[in-house]
């Protein structure tokens, strides 16, 4: 709730030392209001993450450059870094702008966007372009756009909205209704094929079902169903069979996994130092899927642990704030967005450290990728928008703090 | 509150919301999810720590030593071959960031082997990597660093270094420019020196560098004095088969193997050639000791006083066997060896017969290359047809050619109690000597020791008698044989000795290639004049070094043979051609 409230209800300006400040709590300019309502700690964590991502892409860029240089084509050593920097310059304002949207507008935009990208996703098999053995992208001029990346945050918002309607229409089978878009998206994704994204969408859907009060029986059934789905995917879906075989039995071509392991461990605990990595040049996708390994080689496994903790901090920050959140939709939407974000990071890191089969999933805000950067910014912008809080509401509580303030 | 409000309009009152059951369930489940997520991050962190501890590349000195080739040392740990850091300087023209004109001039100043124009062509050319200098000196590397040009690379290239220079060069061998071992123990030990399992541990050869130095110095002194074209020598431990020294003259430096000329004359192989194992020679009268051993072993000789007719050359078919310095009398067994009588030896071999002669020499390994770690082992020239004359000539070392190492091995078996052991170039752990196989009995071996000692006390080996070191041995002189034809002007002289004869420990064999007669030797050039002094020199130097204390009170008892040694009434003061 209540972000909306803060926009409507104007609080009398207190006479305070902040008076003359542009961002004083009393200022009523839109920017000042945005600044005081936004979760500044979350914003700081995301900023750090983007900074880390730029350094990581700078480290991985020469390796990727060598990889994608061929006869006639020479990719400059820092090409991917400059590209990523350019995308960041575009993406950060988008994130800030989205974070400033009023909740209703943000939600409506997300719902409409969700429909648009669902349509685009459906069109991928028709107008998409293939790369690395999968058709996931739609080329728009020089840029390539992956609809599923954009659909992800919007799907979370749409599902949150759907489940938040439950309270108003207790009789309707919302869980059953939500199966329809979920199944549609899963079918489209598996056709590409994109097993990893399917797992993310399904996980977000299950998390939202869980938070919206689905019975334990239903959740148990879903858990069993998920297990059955994975087993049947292993049995009947060749890509999954291959990947899981590789992971479990080290069968077949484990080159990628072996290279990732060699790169990750080459630097030891403290790393070889920036630019001193050597194994990264043998990695198939140093700047995207396996950037975590590149960080491990050059900055040490201690840096990898720090990054894992950074993701944990973001998830905890949002979740702890949500424990105060009373509004169904905001709670569900924020939880959906953050779990989607955290889960993607988790899976990528697990693949890199050899705890999960390789999936072709990027590390949010760290991996290179233009359209993915924009999509993530939109998702994070929505999250920031949904977690905005009127600072005066907190102050208005009549509780006595232990320090007497 | 109601979800309606959330969706459509802001709720009016927060208090209402607090009672919402579904929100409380959501909060509860959110906490569970949070914990799950934290747990997963914990698992990832633990996995990362695990990787850091157990899977990080091992950078300990032991492990990193796997890369460079391990050292080769002598039996006492003296380094014979080591791997040192070498730096080569190279340039990557596409990466040059400075002024190419100036850089070309600077390079021409620092590396004058190419001109400024050459460097300009390189810098503007298409080549991506050009060596400026292999194995650059620290001063050159420093000068290049001062240029501040990042396109110049210092390429680490491990370099093989032989700190002892020419010492035992043919044994150690050498590497070609690409770091591939070409010969010697470098080639034999290649896998072991570079394998990870070995862990960079140095490999100890059986060579004792002190003994090696004494042997090389003695052979060189002799070769220079007697104008020999080459020489070879072996010092062998008779109880273990370890080769304490092996020398071949002329020498080369393993650090620069290309500096010696390539030999084209088949009679004078080049310096990289190991004459001790690769050359096969007719070793002449040194074989008489082996023939005697065979005869004693098979009961052909039971009475050492039995005399053989050496009054006149022996005519066998169209072949005449003469003595080099005829005694023209009937000779006892000790006399035959002392005076190196071909006729007497031939008569004894006649009694042994072709089968037993062949069997014995086969037992000693004279029909095949010697059993040793070195490559390029010479293949003996084994008689194709054993006529009556063949048996007779082979008995005194003609008509059969073996390497010096063959002879040293056989002599070790003759004196050590009768056990033939394979020789080795690797240091054996104490008490790990190979079992070996018996070729003659203890008693026969004892008799041979007596006879060898008598040769030095009374006969052709007199010059090798060193007070207290109890040397025994046998001389041997033969003509070089090229493609089946004897070259009368080219002699190969050998002295094979063992000491101390009361309890033999070492065999020393020295061979001189084409020694010449000099005024000091009255023009003579047989073994006693040139190979023997070298052996005497070696034994005198290494005896005390190896723990054989000169002791005049000790010696092997030869008194039972003395009655059979012919003593002329009048001491002969004339100079003999002795052999």
Automatic annotation (TrEMBL), chain A:
- Provide the transmembrane region boundaries: 41-61, 81-103, 110-130, 150-165, 172-189, 195-211, 218-237, 299-318, 330-353, 365-386
GO MF annotation list: lipid-linked peptidoglycan transporter activity; peptidoglycan glycosyltransferase activity
GO CC terms: cell division site; plasma membrane
UniProt-annotated location(s): Membrane
- Transmembrane helix in keyword set: yes
Polar residues: which segments have biased composition?
A: 7-18
Its Enzyme Commission number(s) read 2.4.99.28
Q: Tell me the GO BP annotations in alphabetical order.
A: cell division; peptidoglycan biosynthetic process; regulation of cell shape
Membrane protein topology class: Multi-pass membrane protein
According to the UniProt record, where is the region Disordered?
A: 1-21
- Give the record's keywords alphabetically: Cell cycle, Cell division, Cell shape, Glycosyltransferase, Membrane, Peptidoglycan synthesis, Transferase, Transmembrane, Transmembrane helix
Catalytic reaction list: [GlcNAc-(1->4)-Mur2Ac(oyl-L-Ala-gamma-D-Glu-L-Lys-D-Ala-D-Ala)](n)-di-trans,octa-cis-undecaprenyl diphosphate + beta-D-GlcNAc-(1->4)-Mur2Ac(oyl-L-Ala-gamma-D-Glu-L-Lys-D-Ala-D-Ala)-di-trans,octa-cis-undecaprenyl diphosphate = [GlcNAc-(1->4)-Mur2Ac(oyl-L-Ala-gamma-D-Glu-L-Lys-D-Ala-D-Ala)](n+1)-di-trans,octa-cis-undecaprenyl diphosphate + di-trans,octa-cis-undecaprenyl diphosphate + H(+)
Main subcellular localisation: membrane
Q: Pfam family example for this protein?
A: FTSW_RODA_SPOVE
User: Which family is this sequence assigned to?
Assistant: Belongs to the SEDS family. FtsW subfamily.
Q: What is this protein called?
A: Probable peptidoglycan glycosyltransferase FtsW
Q: Which organism is it from?
A: Rhizorhabdus histidinilytica
TrEMBL record, chain B:
What's any GO biological process attached to this entry? cell wall organization
Q: Where is this protein found?
A: Membrane
One GO term in the molecular function aspect is: penicillin binding
Residue span(s) of domain Penicillin-binding protein dimerisation: 67-175
Q: Locate the Penicillin-binding protein transpeptidase domain: which residues? A: 231-526
| Domain of life of the organism encoding this protein | Bacteria
Q: Does the keyword Ribosomal protein apply?
A: no
Where do the TM regions start and end?
30-53
Keyword match Cell division: yes
What is the protein name for this chain? Cell division protein FtsI (Penicillin-binding protein 3)
Lineage, highest ranks first? Bacteria, Pseudomonadati, Pseudomonadota, Alphaproteobacteria, Sphingomonadales
């Amino acid at each position: 709730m209540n972000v909306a409230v803060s926009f409507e209800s104007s609080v009398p300006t207190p006479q305070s030392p902040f008076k003359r400040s542009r961002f004083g709590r009393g200022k009523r300019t839109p920017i000042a209001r945005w600044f005081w309502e936004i979760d500044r700690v979350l914003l700081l964590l995301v900023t750090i993450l983007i900074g880390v991502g730029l350094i990581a892409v700078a480290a991985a860029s020469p390796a990727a450059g060598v990889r994608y240089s061929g006869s006639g084509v020479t990719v400059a050593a820092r090409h991917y870094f400059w590209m990523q920097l350019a995308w960041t310059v575009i993406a950060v304002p988008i994130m800030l702008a989205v974070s400033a949207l009023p909740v209703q507008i943000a939600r409506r935009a997300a719902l409409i966007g969700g429909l648009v990208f669902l349509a685009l996703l459906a069109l991928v098999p028709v107008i998409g372009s293939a790369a690395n053995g999968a058709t996931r992208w739609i080329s728009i001029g020089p840029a390539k756009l992956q609809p599923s990346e954009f659909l992800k945050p919007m799907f979370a918002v749409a599902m949150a909205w759907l489940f938040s309607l439950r309270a108003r229409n207790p009789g309707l089978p919302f869980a059953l209704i939500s199966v329809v878009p979920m199944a549609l998206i899963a079918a489209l994704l598996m056709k590409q094929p994109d097993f990893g994204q399917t797992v993310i969408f399904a996980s977000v859907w299950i998390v939202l079902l869980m938070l919206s009060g689905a019975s334990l029986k239903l959740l148990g059934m879903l858990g069993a169903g998920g297990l059955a789905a994975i087993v049947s995917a292993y049995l009947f879906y060749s890509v999954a069979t291959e990947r899981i075989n590789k992971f479990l039995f080290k069968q077949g071509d484990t080159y990628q996994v072996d290279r990732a392991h060699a790169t990750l461990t080459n630097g030891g605990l403290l790393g070889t130092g920036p630019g001193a990595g050597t194994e990264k040049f043998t990695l198939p996708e140093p700047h995207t899927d396996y950037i975590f390994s590149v960080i491990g080689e050059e900055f040490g496994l201690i840096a990898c642990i720090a990054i894992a903790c950074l993701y944990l901090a973001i998830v905890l920050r949002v979740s702890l704030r949500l424990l105060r959140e009373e509004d169904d939709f905001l709670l569900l939407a924020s939880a959906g967005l953050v779990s989607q974000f955290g889960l993607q990071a988790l899976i990528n890191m697990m693949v890199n450290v050899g705890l999960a089969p390789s999936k072709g999933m990027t590390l949010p805000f760290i991996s290179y990728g233009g359209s993915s950067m924009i999509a993530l910014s939109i998702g994070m912008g929505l999250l920031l928008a949904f977690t905005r809080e009127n600072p005066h509401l907190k102050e208005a509580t009549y509780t006595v703090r232990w320090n007497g303030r | 509150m109601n979800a309606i409000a959330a969706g459509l309009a802001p709720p009016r009152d927060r208090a209402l919301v607090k009672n919402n059951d579904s929100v409380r369930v959501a909060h509860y489940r959110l906490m569970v999810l949070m914990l799950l997520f934290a747990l997963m991050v914990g698992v990832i962190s633990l996995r990362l720590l695990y990787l850091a501890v157990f899977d990080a590349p091992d950078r300990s000195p032991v492990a990193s030593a796997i890369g460079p080739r391990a050292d080769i040392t002598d039996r006492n740990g003296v380094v014979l071959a080591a791997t040192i850091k070498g730096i080569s300087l190279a340039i990557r023209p596409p990466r040059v960031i400075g002024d190419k004109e100036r850089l070309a001039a600077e390079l021409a100043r620092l590396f004058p082997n190419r001109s400024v124009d050459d460097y300009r062509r390189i810098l503007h050319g298409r080549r991506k990597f050009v060596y400026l200098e292999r194995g650059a000196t620290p001063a050159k590397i420093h000068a290049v660093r001062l240029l501040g040009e990042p396109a110049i690379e210092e390429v680490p290239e491990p370099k093989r270094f032989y700190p002892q220079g020419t010492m035992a060069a043919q044994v150690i061998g050498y590497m070609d420019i690409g770091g591939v071992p070409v010969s010697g123990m470098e080639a034999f030990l290649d896998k072991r020196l570079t394998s990870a399992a070995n862990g960079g541990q140095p490999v100890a050869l059986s060579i004792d560098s002190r003994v090696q130095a004494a042997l090389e110095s003695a052979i060189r002194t002799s070769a220079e004095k007697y104008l020999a074209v080459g020489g070879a020598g072996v010092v062998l431990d008779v109880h273990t088969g370890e080769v304490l020294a092996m020398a071949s003259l002329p020498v080369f430096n393993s650090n620069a193997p290309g500096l010696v000329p390539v030999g084209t004359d088949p009679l004078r192989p080049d310096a990289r050639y190991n004459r001790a194992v690769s050359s096969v020679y007719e070793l002449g009268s040194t074989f008489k000791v082996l023939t005697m051993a065979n005869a004693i072993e098979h009961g052909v000789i039971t009475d050492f006083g039995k005399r053989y007719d050496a009054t006149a050359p022996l005519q066998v078919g169209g072949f005449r066997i003469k003595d080099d310095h005829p005694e023209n009398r009937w000779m006892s067994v000790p006399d035959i060896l002392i005076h190196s009588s071909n006729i007497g030896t031939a008569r004894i071999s006649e009694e042994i017969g072709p089968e037993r002669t062949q069997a014995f020499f086969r037992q000693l390994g004279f029909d095949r290359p010697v059993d040793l770690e070195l490559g390029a082992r010479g293949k003996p020239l084994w008689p194709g047809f054993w006529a009556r004359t063949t048996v007779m000539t082979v008995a005194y070392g003609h008509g059969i050619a073996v390497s010096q190492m063959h002879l040293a091995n056989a002599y070790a078996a003759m004196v050590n109690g009768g056990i033939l052991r394979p020789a080795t170039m690797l240091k054996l752990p104490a008490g790990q000597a190979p079992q070996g196989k018996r070729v003659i009995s203890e008693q026969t071996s004892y008799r041979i020791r007596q006879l060898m000692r008598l040769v030095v006390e009374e006969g052709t080996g007199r010059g090798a008698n060193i007070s207290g070191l109890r040397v025994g041995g046998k001389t041997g002189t033969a003509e070089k044989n090229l493609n089946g034809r004897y070259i009368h002007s080219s002699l190969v002289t050998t002295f094979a000795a063992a000491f101390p004869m009361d309890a033999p420990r070492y065999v020393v064999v020295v061979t001189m290639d084409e020694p010449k007669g000099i005024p000091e030797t009255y023009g003579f050039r047989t073994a006693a004049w040139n190979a023997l002094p070298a052996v005497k020199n070696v034994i005198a130097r290494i005896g005390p070094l190896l723990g054989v204390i000169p002791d005049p009170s000790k010696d092997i008892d030869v008194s039972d043979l003395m009655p059979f040694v012919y003593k002329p009434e009048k001491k002969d003061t004339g100079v003999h051609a002795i052999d």
